[in-house]
Amino acid sequence: MRVLLQRVKSSQVEVGGEVIGRIGRGLNLLVGIASTDTEVELDWLVHKCLELRLFSNSQGRFEYSIQEIGGELLVVSQFTLYGDGRKGRRPSFERAAPPQQARQLYEQFVAKLRLSGLRVATGQFGAMMQVSIENDGPVTLLLEREAKE
Prior knowledge:
The protein is α/β, with parallel strands linked by helices. The protein has a single domain, classed as D-tyrosyl-trna(Tyr) Deacylase, Chain: A, CATH 3.50.80.10. The protein is 22% helix and 38% strand. α1 (39-51) packs parallel to α3 (99-114). The two termini are 14 Å apart.
């Protein structure tokens, strides 16, 4: 499972010209799910997203987590995070989970983030979306937890 995490001043997602999710200060999470992923990988990434200290103190040092600042989360499914462009001119997505499995794990990921009490907005699974991100920093991390085989 992969999460491309971006610290944002604001972020929103549109489907068909309509805003379906919007946040202020917080984290934009683009989530990719592999066919080998289970709840173990999901739980690890939920913990990391909520606990990483990515928000600065008055000296500019990363001191606070999203929970500590009471920030917001925008979670967007992104199967292309498992795109492999090493061969040819068209990426392969063979490591990405099939839609039914990915949807289930994505919905569990969102539900577990909501248990934190933070405001969590989402995109629409499987839809063509336009995501607007006002980066803060910019601060961008790729978090990954590979399933043990």
